[in-house]
Amino acid sequence: MIAKRLEGISEYYFSQKLREIESLNKEGKNIINLGIGSPDLPPHPDVIKTLQEEAAKPGVHGYQGYKGIPALRQAFADWYQQWYHVTLHPDTEILPLLGSKEGIMHICMTYLDEGDEALIPDPGYPTYGSAVKLAGGKPVNYILQEAQNWYPDLKALAATDLSRVKLMFVNYPNMPTGQPVGQDLFEALVRFAKEHHILLVHDNPYSFILNDEPISLLAVPGAKEVVLELNSLSKSHNMAGWRIGVLCGAKERIEEVLRFKSNMDSGMFMPLQLAAAKALSLGSDWYSHINGIYAERRAKVYRILDILGCSYSLKQVGLFVWAKIPDHYEDAYALSDEVLYGSGVFLTPGGIFGSQGLRYIRISLCGDLSRFEQAVNRINK
User: Fold this and answer.
1) CB 360 within 8 Å of CB 325
2) Is the whole model's pTM more than 0.85, yes or no?
3) pLDDT (tens digit per residue) in 275-320
4) For the stretch 210-237, what's the b/e string if a residue is b when 16 or more beta carbons lie within 10 angstroms of its beta carbon?
5) pLDDT tens string 133-152
6) What 8-state DSSP symbol labels residue 148?
7) Which end of the chain is more exposed for a tag (fewer CB within 10 A), N or C?
């Protein structure tokens, strides 16, 4: 018998869908997968070189400290100062992670008891709700709608019973909608959290992708009192498989999360940490380079959406394009399956991100330009 904590926790959608796509490929279908946001581009050559050189040294293969090496914490602090204009103490306000996804789980396990509630965006990253459930908490959805620029209605939320709410997950630039964010929303979120004694968890991995103004929730004055921010090198530096993330916040919050994390792992491989520090030191040329590539791909995705009769915002940013489907489809699952089985192209149905995504699809910008051109040709036929 499995543990009760896994009741109601299903296998991750993409895990199931990849098996289906694998079966179709075995039949010779050669499916073009435009669903998953796993960067296909390599990291900067200097980052790879640093990993190679450091890994060749004899004294770097032992266990590492739970808080990461000082060089990596300082690199994260410098990165936050340069790009987000946020001052963080490298010794006390930064906690490197084995990818930011583990940080979501660590936070839930640190703060949620049985019956505690956490506010989860709908649409939003499914892992937020799963992590809350695994920790014994209760996920409570809050609605994001296109008519409100995919921003939460904080006035409506304040009118609900928030007495058991301890956490609120927010994510801007938003995934899956691509909605950028303004300082006004971040300031309103901080005021809301302070008024209702809620810890805001800001998931911020997309701020450098096709976005000219990276922004951190921690830039709001007084935010450290109520904010923990997760960030990652997966998207911004093409290092998804390296599993390098970070948690930033007040000294007390970092220490609290570390109490849980230190019982779960033994620290990150030192050469990875040194290579990550190198990646964080890259200048604006790096971000311009990868965004130039993503912009070309996005133009092809727009062409796919035009063929399918979908509508979309040209203001969205991030690693995906989010689009509303034509009215004659029952939902996005129907459109996704039609394109998969009719054209051999997989597009993500927005319903996996919540009820508010049922009439939307999401297309990843990960993949060689020729794959997008081929997808255009297949769908056009």
Assistant:
1) yes
2) yes
3) 999 999 999 999 999 999 999 999 999 999 999 999 999 999 999 9
4) bbeebbbbbbbeebbebbbbbbbbbbbb
5) 999 999 999 999 999 999 99
6) G
7) N
223 φ, ψ (degrees, to nearest 5): -65, -30
Residue 199 exposure: Cα atoms within 13 Å on the Cβ side:
21
3-state secondary structure at position 291: helix
Q: What is the mean pLDDT of residues 86-98?
A: 98
Average pLDDT over residues 25-43: 91
Does residue 178 come out as left (phi exceeding 0), alpha (psi in the -120 to 50 range) or beta?
left
Q: In this structure, are residues 228 and 200 in contact, taking their beta carbons and an 8 Å threshold?
A: yes
The helix (H) or strand (E) run that includes residue 324 is: strand 320-324
State the average pLDDT over residues 71-96: 98
Among the residues of the chain, which ranges form H helices? 13-26, 45-55, 70-79, 100-111, 126-134, 154-158, 183-196, 251-261, 270-280, 284-308, 332-343, 369-380
> What's the DSSP call for residue 81?
I
pLDDT at res. 381: 83
- How far apart, in whole angstroms, are the C-alpha atoms of residue 264 and residue 278? 26
Q: Convert the pLDDT of each residue in 182-193 to its tens digit.
A: 899 999 999 999
Dihedral sign computed on CA atoms, order 249, 253, 255, 260: negative
Q: Do residues 134 and 264 make contact, with C-beta atoms less than 8 angstroms apart?
A: no
d(CA 161, CA 141): 13
What is the reported pLDDT for 22?
A: 86
Is residue 10 over pLDDT 80?
no
Q: How much is the average pLDDT of 57-79?
A: 96
Written as one string, the DSSP assignment of 176-193 is TT-----HHHHHHHHHHH
Of the candidates 103, 219, 119, 129, the one whose C-alpha atom is nearest the C-alpha of residue 164 is: 119
Cα separation, 268 vs 51, in Å, equals 13
Q: Is 38 helix (H, G, I), strand (E, B) or coil?
A: coil
pLDDT score at 309:
97
Across 155-179, average pLDDT: 98
Report d(CA 334, CA 331) in Å as an integer.
6
Strands 348-349 and 165-170: unpaired
